[in-house]
Amino acid sequence: MKIAIEGCCHGELDKIYDTIKEIEEKQSIHIDLLLICGDFQAVRNTQDLQSMAVPPKYRSMQDFWRYYNGEKKAPVLTIFIGGNHESSNFLVELPYGGWVAENIYYMGYSNVINYNGLRLCGISGIYKSNDYNIGRYETPPFTDRTVRSIYHVRSFDIYRLKQLKENTIDIVISHDWPRGITSYGNTTKLLQYKKHFYNDIKNNQLGSPPLEEILLDLKPNYWFAAHLHVKFSALVEHNNGNVTRFLSLDKCLPGREFLQVLDIEPINPTKINSNRLTLDPEWLCILKKTDNLLNVHRTHTYLPNKSQQSSMPTEEDIKSLHEDFGDQFEVPDMFQITAPTYTSEKSSSTSINQQQKINPQTELLCQMLGIRDPLNVVLNRTVGASMPSIDDSNLNTNDPNQDDDKCSISSEEHDHHDDLNMESTNIHLTTS
């Protein structure tokens, strides 16, 4: 199966799809799937644009709204996770994932889905120590703080991922790099292009500590990431003999290595050769078994250790879920426009309720599983009730992970190649 991997999207869907078309024509191949590793920027209208955590001078409508309103359709099935430059006004509606446009699927805060036998795991956002152990309390309209804190990875999402069985995930997609990943690749070459990484690498502070744990726990075959705007590859040999092939790519700009095509086959090929996304029964069971731990306040999230409570699904859990779903796990094609689009917002502001934030896709999944939508819980809190909070005065302002754009502001031109033993196609965008 030929899969295209894209680094940071930054709203450049047209250029990415044009590049894929060019590859297919030049090499006489068909690309089955596109994976985007964050900074997707699903901006539907100008209100969404204001909820994107980027300096005002860099805010642009870009391409997505044309795919959202149906003017264009993604030519290849596209799956993405969130980064640290997203339009959270829209994505907050889909905490468990869902379609954001026809043929474009967002994986939510964390998720596992299946495609043609491939088991894909997604983790959105970046790590910030100050927000890691608190609840998902953010809701539109966002403040200067919450427009950023909303894309910070939470311990609850990592806890859920840790309930998965190891050696069963084909691909993990994240925005952040796992901490310590540079130890498994050519660090000397990396520092030639990113000299300012030196101290963080030396002090083992480059990357996400929770993602390092997930890497070592799940031992996936592949791990794709972005965020740091540089191409870097690594081979991680695990203690059980498994190997994870890590690859991070650049952002979509002329001359950058932002896209690569790989031939990937699943660990356990499915008997059903389906070109449709399917929900993952084990992951759905994990969502059910951990719903009681959901925290939607700006307070500490208390999660059980293995001796206190196991949230790993049993065979009986999975059997029961198959019965509840009637063995039908295809992701339903139920995308619908839930907000005014850029071209119509002036003329149709009364035809669509801009304040409606409960997405029908999330509502259906929650009903099927008997779980809660975190956004719905927040929106239904008593109006005027005081919200528990944490004391900002004790936050560690010297934490090296506090600057969202640390190690990603400067992105030098580079022309180096990955060292992974993968059958692949390296892509440079050479036109504006």
From TrEMBL:
According to the entry, every stretch annotated as the Lariat debranching enzyme C-terminal domain falls at 236-375
Q: Name one GO biological process term.
A: mRNA splicing, via spliceosome
Per UniProt, which keywords does this protein have?
Hydrolase, Iron, Manganese, Metal-binding, mRNA processing, Nucleus, Zinc
Q: Which cofactor does it need?
A: Fe(2+); Zn(2+); Mn(2+)
Top-rank taxon, per record: Eukaryota
Region (Disordered) residue ranges read 387-432
* Biased amino acid composition, Basic and acidic residues: 403-420
**GO CC annotation, single:** nucleus
Q: What is the first-listed, main subcellular location in coarse terms?
A: nucleus
Q: Name one GO molecular function term.
A: metal ion binding
InterPro entries from the xrefs? Calcineurin-like_PHP, DBR1_C, Dbr1_N, Metallo-depent_PP-like
* Ranges of Polar residues composition bias in the record: 391-400, 422-432
Subcellular location per UniProt equals: Nucleus
Similarity remark: Belongs to the lariat debranching enzyme family.
Protein name (database record): Lariat debranching enzyme C-terminal domain-containing protein
> What organism is listed for this UniProt entry?
Didymodactylos carnosus
